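Q: Start with the shorter request: fold the first protein.
A: Done. Sequence, then structure:
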Amino acid sequence: MHHRTLFAPQIDNMIRSPRSWEPDIYLPLDTAATQLFDVLDNIEPLGEDGFRLLWIPAERGPITAFGHYDELYEDGEYQTYQEFEQSWLSSYPDETVWYKITCTEYDDCRHLFINGRFCIRFANDDHTNNPEYYVPLMNWLMCGAQYCVIQCKNDSYNTIIREKLPFDMRTGTILRREVVPGFLRTLVFARLCDDDQFAACTV
């Protein structure tokens, strides 16, 4: 199955409305969510809270991922294409954007945070947002998590983070010994991402 790549502006549009007092969205703990957490569980939990942390990259992508100039021009947001292009480049000066992913469990529910703010709560109840809208985001998270765990297994994750993660975002690294020995089961889930999609998650 082919899944369209998400670029950084598209991801940001999906996680742009953080709320501090409750999860931003509620998604079902379905097969896709369970498979995602099976991959994330290969990373050894940290601290007393037992959270898991990793970094996932996304490409800046083409300017059309930032928006469509004709529509924004009609809405009065930009007066010239040059102004629109400058806004795109100033918002995304780097070709790769990194996202901090934190996974934890409390109140009998799994929670996933993106950049420490946007929160997804996974549970088997009727209080869920539109799951279909967030399928691309879930696919991106799954693909990125698989890539991270594989790099941890290959002992190359720290090198990638050291060379490519912006200095103002560095909070730590994952040691190879902190990958749970049951890592090999995650390779089964690699088949959920075709080669093109999986490669799109690499940097």
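Q: Next, the second protein, separately.
A: Sequence, then structure:
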Amino acid sequence: MLSLVPAAVPVPIAMSTWRIAGAPSGDGRKATVTTMMKRFVGVAGVSLAMLLGGCVTAQKTPAPASSVSTSVDVPVAEATVSVPASPAIDTSVGALVPQGDVDAAREAGAAVYVSPRGDGSGVVIDVAAGLPAQAEADVRAVAGGIPVDVMSFGQQNLDRAANARAMEDAGVGAFIVIRAPQFEQGKAVSAQYVVLTHGAIAGAKEAIAANPNTIRDSAAEAIAAKQALIDANPGAPIIDTSS
């Protein structure tokens, strides 16, 4: 602690010669009074020094800094993203339609044939012009004649079902003459003839329900058994795969 005043400051004081009860008289009394006054002055000087020292060493507490917000809200313009329009789908007859556009082309009113043996793309067809060449090629791609065994016959039926669905989706149909085999121990022992309906054949379900057994001994007889239905669908060709 810093002291600005000496511990004891001599202060001239006039000595009185009053008598203190019990104190010695004469010079002894004066000495006693003088000693007491010096002690009083010394204590007062020390107290003043301590008081002044406290004033000098006291530190001010800094005032808290004022908090001022400097943030500014700046409006952000919304970015506009332009999405290019999808190119128009060509729905003219004969146009090739990518796989991803087949459904859209059909929704736009186009008839699209998609080969079950292709890559999923299709071709726009004219339903009034009859069965497209690709559809007939798919029918003939299925193994014809008498199947070797039950497994072969099963695979033929799977392939024929795929062709029938493709025709149905495109809005066209056909009559397919096939062999109707009979099996013993998994092997074909005989084969008659039957006409299958593929795709969009008007009245096919009703005709089959009315006459479910149209298996015949020859292709001509099998065709005759379905003649009424064939006549009701003049745009559907007859494709013979029996041989």
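Q: Describe the second briefly.
A: Residues 68 and 74 are 18 Å apart (CA to CA). The mean pLDDT is 79.
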